[in-house]
Amino acid sequence: MSASGVAFVIPLYNHADTVADVVGSARTLGWPVFVVDDGSTDGGLLRIPQTDGVHVVRHSRNTGKGAALLTGMQAAAAAADYAVTVDADGQHDPRDARRLVAAARAGGRPLVVGARSGMDGAHVPSSSRFGRAFSGFWVWACGGPRVVDSQSGFRAYPIAETLALRTRARRFEFEVEVLVRARWAGIPVIELPVSVTYPPSQERVSHFHRGWDSLRNAATFSRLLILRALLATTPRSTAPPRRIGGTRAGIR
Fold first, then answer.
1. b/e string for 68-77 if b means 16 or more Cβ within 10 A?
2. What is the pTM of this model?
3. Do 14 and 205 meet the contact criterion of CB atoms below 8 Å apart?
4. Tell me, what's the pLDDT at 172?
């Protein structure tokens, strides 16, 4: 995979204050950038830099983060075979994507997860710390990889393999289902630490609904557990998890 085989996919939903900086930073790496506006209503599209290499795809209504990621990968497939996904809220530095891509280039066409470091910071919500530990357990229980941060949106996906997975989730729960289905399909899943910035709560914009999205996650895990039991899809590996930069990496 060459550098020209990489594209950014940025799902956007009402992050007008941060999306321009995220797109601008991503563009400094020289890779094409695909922004998928998932029915935003705050005028964020008007703030996206109109420059070569930046492509905008629009959903007429909000259909969910997972749907936006899939739309972005489908659009990026014509220009790349790997998609680096990064959220539009400014939580991550897109320039860290070089490290994700370097891990992907090491061989095996893995799905690479950027595990957020510094989650014990003052501005990090306790619900985020609990959520990723809780979610990580259920990803493993469903036959997925052991990962530290199953909810991170900063990832490098092998496009063709990811689009071939039969994921059903289309909102936030897509990001946990795709990890489980990747391991079922024999796609290596590795993890390495990345930096993260959490602004004070009054400045942070999150669209995760603790009630509805928690229920969707629970329904997704229940469905995957049932499928695993019915299909006996994957025997659990006895090999120890691989580590990159001090972070566990589940390998098939």
1. bbbbbbbbbb
2. 0.82
3. yes
4. 86
DSSP structure string for 161-216: HHHHS-----STTHHHHHHHHHHHTT--EEEEEE------GGG------TTHHHHH
Q: What's the pLDDT score for residue 251?
A: 30
How many C-beta atoms surround the C-beta of residue 16 within 10 A?
18
Q: What is the mean pLDDT of each run of 10 residues along the chain (252 residues)?
A: 76 95 96 97 92 96 97 97 96 95 95 84 50 86 96 97 96 95 97 83 52 73 93 50 42 30
pLDDT at 133: 79
* Alpha-carbon distance values, 79 to 21, 51, 54, 82 (Å): 23, 17, 12, 9
What domains, with CATH codes, occur in the chain? 3-249 (3.90.550.10)
* Dist CA 33 CA 219 (whole Å): 33
Alpha-carbon separation of residue 164 from 70, 91, 152, 168, 251 (angstroms): 11, 29, 21, 12, 20
